[in-house]
Protein 1
Amino acid sequence: MDIRAEILAVDFPDTAAARIVIAAPAEKIFNYLADPRSHALFDGSSTIQGAIAGPERLYLGARFGMSMKIRVPYRITNEVIAFEENAKITWRHLMKWTWSYELKDLGNGSTQVTEIFDASVCNKAQRWWVYKTDSLNRNPKWMAKSLVKLKILCEG
């Protein structure tokens, strides 16, 4: 069976989003999202090498470090800036763009999960980097792959 996430058309500049329905309760899905050590398990970009610092479970204001690799290895520290248990989690790093996951209970044991990349708050230099790295074209594909991996993980 070919599982796919939907890449969403967005009306906001410097923003991308993807969505999928997962046959699992929001709590189960959110537990993976709130555990930085599990992020590599559902990373569709293959850029996350692992968690290197931070709490086992994220919370509003939590900081966590990740080992990454896009062409060259690097480390990045993120800060959780929105946290609604089983509903929403958002983090940002030094370049100020954010990654959000929004969960909506569909009432039938399934949850709609939307992942959002938002670089609209970035300054001119940060936005230059977003365009230089082709993030707005690349990220939706990576997000869709991540959501498919999250679905398989949660439904398995």
Protein 2
Amino acid sequence: MRNNARGGGIYVGPLTAEAGVGTLIEALDLFPGARIEVIGSGPEGVRLAQHPQVRLAGNLKGDELQARLEAAAYLVVPAHDPVARQVVEAFANGTAVIASRTGAAAELIEPGRNGLLFEPGSARDLARRLAWAEAFPERMRQMGECARADYQARFIAAFSYRTLFGERRRSARLQT
């Protein structure tokens, strides 16, 4: 069963400048209220390990990674991601996503519904999104639920529009 008490953010990916780690660090410096768990390895790992708002977990896969995604309130994708695999994994685990407004992630995310978008390379804009996410944990939880529903509707063949929306409409009719 999924834990409803989610908190903080998570970053999953290579710890390189190309992956937007520098933008993430700058955003954390601008907004000291966010706590991010970082999963991955790379040359920026030493810099991240020294940051007070970052918990470096190393490389995780499988059930360990899934458990961390289920515990996080949001996934941060600070740079252009042409594949968006992390976004799909986050959606599957009911985790909202804060991502750059470019790449495949931007096509999957509907701002305010299943995640938030920020201007590419803008640490200030990312810091604003992190501050919003920390200020409104209930909205982030709801976005995570929508993200899970989107995952099931888009990527699970047995899930249908009727399954996603039909029962809600039926229950609304029965209550009136």
Protein 3
Amino acid sequence: MRKFSSSECSIVVEHQFLMKTPKQVLTEWVAAYNARDPYILAALYHEDATNIQVALGEPLHGREVMLESFISFFQAFPDNCTHIENLFEDGEWAILEWSGTGTFLGEFAGFTPTGKSFTLRGCGFFHVVDSKIKFQRGYFDKLTWFTQIGIPITSESDGAAYSNPK
């Protein structure tokens, strides 16, 4: 049996102590999201992370792009709130089932605010590596969301220049 030196043990213990489980990372993610803090949210992602919101099309690549997306979303929906319905963990993956609400009060994807509110449910799959989100894929019903907030479903809104960070 190999014996480890005290310095090797402290490195292992320190590394394990600092590492967060995917579930812990997602709990922090929801707290930062509900605090509407785009900077804390962006810091939870790897520099080269990818976020795919299936209903919206084009994926987001990179922490800076995600930061811009969070800022834009929080300006458009300053009262948004997400509730954890279920949060599961499997290895490096966390799965979040969520419900959310908000009011369309600022410009969003080129659309003028309507003052209308939404209630929506969805889910997200997060690959967490070294305590940071490396990959995210989310699912929600775009027709329900856009109908509630008064955005017409057209070719202009089909590829809305926005990615819901959920």
Protein 4
Amino acid sequence: MHHYTVLSPHNPQSAQSKSPPQLSAEGSHMTSDEILLDVEERMEKAVRKLKSDLAGIRTGRANPGLVDSLRVEVYGSPTPLKQIASVGAPEPNQIVIRPYDPNTIKEIEKAILASDLGFTPQNDGRVIRLNVPPLSTEVRRKMVARVRELAEEARIALRNIRRDGNKMADQAEEEKELSEDDCQRLKEQIQELTKQYENQVNEAAKTREKEVMED
């Protein structure tokens, strides 16, 4: 991943210590480095979201990601399962959940039953075991279709971010903050980032599709 240095004439660290400015049609007198940094961080966030969404898609094998983000009502608020228990898949068809606090095991079991995961938890008082049945061919096809749909949503997000970055480059040129050559160079760098993150999207989707089809 490329990292672009952002310098402020008043404070060299200011652009890194604050949240990056968001691109907007009105403009914010952003430098080319600031535009690139904003584009890169937004693209990184889009890919991160895709990977998180893909982790929740069932595959042919037991995968802790299926339950990691499950929210459990404990200590007075909904809490992600991974914060209150260790989750593993010691066997291809079984997920094991070990609560850090054994007193929360009933709440975890309740959350699993209330979810749309379709698993029946086996609770021995210390750990919860979830048997993950093999996927039918029809379900696998649906899961692959969902992977492709999520990947396309991520690609669209990347193109929208590229469009925003290019608009800011054009505006900076119009306002004489960038020369024509600098504007073109900035657009080329934005395109380079777009390709880089599109490749990450394609690779993540391809890997997940393969996992879905594995026995």
